Amino acid sequence: MTSKVTSPRQPAAGISLSVPESWWEFDVRPEGREATIRTLVDERVRATPELEPYRADLTAMLRKMAKDAQESGAIYLGCMAENFDGVPLTATVTVSVVGAKNQQGVALSTDPRVIAESLSTVTPRREGDAWRKVTTVDIPEVGTAARTFGVEDVPVEQGDSRTLRMVMTQTYIPVPGTTDQIVLVSGASPVLDLAEAFHDIFDAVTSTFRFV
């Protein structure tokens, strides 16, 4: 894991995160993402000419991923888009800075153990149902963070009642020097058959998170 990105868009510190070399990572802001996507696709096609027939598909997929990430409030997006024996494998990791307040605006604790206690588990009633587990993890040089992981039904988009079942790992990291901000690192993939593998990938990527 080598590619790194930093962002100063939080008051206490910037952030650093590493993703595998084969992943795509870029600016999710509307004013910068089109040029970035074009450049990334051009570079990838030059390096792997057999991708040329899929240029338009790759561009459209990356554009949608970036748009969804930006609309969700993310400040960073890393995504995997690969094809193994004709089977598309996709996944995203986003980083967002969220306020530690409830819907009524009341301040909530940023203590990872308190956050974990406030998160709910989902127990499947039968095989194939959605599920979610809650735990805490230790991130090197960062400390303890709350985490949920599982296979969850998430909204297709804001205002849409439809859902899409996804492999999900979400890690809640307190921002140092503040009492009201949390960094949320979210990993998601629609490839349910590889849920365990993607949970491991998301854990590995999140373990590289640092404040800088």
Chart the SSEs and their pairings.
Layout lengths: L2 E5 L7 E5 L4 E3 L3 H18 L7 H17 L2 E11 L2 E13 L12 H7 L12 E9 L3 E13 L7 E12 L6 E9 L5 H12 L3 E2 L1
Antiparallel strand pairs: 1-2, 2-10, 3-4, 4-5, 5-9, 6-7, 7-8, 8-9
Helix pairs in contact: 1-2
Overview of this protein structure:
With 212 residues, this protein is of the alpha+beta class. The protein has one domain (3-211): Protein Transport Mog1p, Chain A. The protein has 4 helices and 10 strands; from the N terminus they run βββααββαββββαβ. The chain has helices at residues 30-47, 55-71, 112-118, 195-206; strands at residues 3-7, 15-19, 24-26, 74-84, 87-99, 131-139, 143-155, 163-174, 181-189, 210-211. The strands form 2 sheets. A 7-stranded antiparallel β-sheet has the order 3-4-5-9-8-7-6, with helices on both faces. The longest helix has 18 residues, at 30-47.
CATH architecture: 3-Layer(aba) Sandwich
Any idea what the shape is? globular
What structural category characterises the helix and strand content?
alpha+beta
User: What share of the residues does DSSP label as strand, in percent?
Assistant: 35-45%
Distance between the termini: 18 Å
Task: Please report the total strand number as a whole number.
Answer: 10
Total domain count: 1
Q: Low-confidence stretches at least 5 residues in length (pLDDT < 50)?
A: 1-12
Strand arrangement across the biggest beta sheet:
3-4-5-9-8-7-6
